[in-house]
């Protein structure tokens, strides 16, 4: 299996860590009788030879040896080797040339993959399935091999993967495959019904939905829910998964990050993806998942609820209520998943507010949690309840504020509660007055409190805010985050913060000069001291584009008082940065400048840079009836059922909700 390994000039080849001289040792380690050595070698392959999905010349040189190792039945943990080969074929991080060479190398080993499809190790049989369609030839042989394996396979963990491979075959060959593609679809239709087991039937239905939806059963959702529950009832007690190495290697730790029922997650995600814009069917399917007796099914349903909301607009209260009921479960993974998803939903989690409030009332210990280092933070259920804007969170937060341990992040949830949180202002104000003026805790404690008091427009806290401005240690040119947060709070207080005017003027020539100028304008309403500062920021090429965009935003909010800045703003509308262009164009329009010159800028940005749409809609809202020239864009946005600001970072839903709210406000104005 290592024939010719010493004839390769490994020293001249490269991988992620440089010279590939160590690769022969890694390859030999994969064949070791010592489990720890095998794990170390596999970690080394992923860490250097296939680092972050990339393919190097050393990776290509390894493929024949990996194939030779994979077919040696006496070796242990071969499923991991096959997974590595499949991942090399995917080559997401590779250049087009190296990716093509990797696929060619694997196609040259197609006979080995065909042999592994009947391997005695079920883990190997499952791992090799993604390689059969792309690397085994000719197509007729592949389809015959899949049909034969379905006939003889008895492992319920392998059968769904066979159906997925048949679906991949049907999609890959499509019309060009003619009778072969039709035969594959017919096989999927056969597998989707009795007498086959629920896991295989679910997999076949998911594949039919993606390549031949006309062959799906008419009662699709009830069928899927019933099969899901039948599958859960047959699930064996969880144990060590096949093909999973012993110990605590990198590969093992990565496996632990996967869903606890990875196969069930994949099966249902396939069905959801295939249903696409059939949102009502997907909501019904989610409700079926979330009412399953099996906590693993419910956990998968929780995460898929987030997937639906990230892509499609709408309230959909039924699955939200069901996700809310999972927060009170004793299953730690399920509780954490429900909290994370509801927190991402924000105000859309409002239908779950009742169960959340009941839980917090009966289990007060959930109101505060402690991080790995013992630092207190708001409990997830309380953060979610406050994030919905539900006023029932206010008394609970008041009890936390009055308790012996008050999390520093409590102030972060206040803005979502609006004026309902006004009774909390005195306690928040007292805590702000006790924030130390120096030290690492100052920023962590002060910023959330300042944001909360600013949101509440608590003008009684002005003395405590001014205390921070005057007492935080001086940092010439860069006053720091606490000072900037204090300045932003003063801007929210307006004329009531008049006593801070000297401090604000003293900050105009610092790194937070734009924020100080905005606050000074809010406090005094006098443009003479403010406009020159903002004009300098507009032309400061040494600072980041965000500072120029921020200066343009402030000038726009000043309206006609900022008219002297119009020439500079017009120049900024030609910036390469979309945020700068939009901020400058909006400011020109709001200051009474030449609207006809900036409307094309805004229309272009709306289409080409969706992330600027909220800023543009806000400009239209501020202009009232004068914003009519762009109303057509806002109407089209509100008519779209799909979110375009969605992401996997947990912020897309909230960004989209803000956008649609601002659009509605602009049209109403």
Give a quick summary of the entry.
The protein is an all-alpha fold and 669 residues long.
How does this model look, in words?
The chain is mostly helical and 669 residues long. Among the domains are: 1-135, Leucine-rich Repeat Variant; 568-669, no CATH class. Helices cover 62% and strands 1% of the residues. It has 36 helices and 4 strands. It has helices at residues 23-30, 35-49, 57-70, 78-90, 96-108, 110-116, 122-135, 139-152, 159-173, 179-191, 198-211, 220-234, 250-256, 262-275, 279-290, 295-311, 317-325, 332-345, 353-362, 380-387, 393-402, 414-417, 425-433, 441-455, 462-471, 481-493, 501-506, 513-524, 531-538, 545-558, 566-572, 578-590, 595-608, 613-623, 631-639, 652-668; strands at 14-15, 18-19, 368-370, 376-378. The strands form 2 sheets. The protein has a two-stranded antiparallel ribbon with strand order 1-2. Helix 8 packs antiparallel against helix 9, helix 15 (279-290) packs parallel to helix 17 (317-325) and helix 26 packs parallel to helix 28. The longest helix is centred in the middle third of the chain and has 17 residues, at 295-311. It is globular. 44% of the residues are buried. Mean pLDDT is 90; it is low at 236-258.
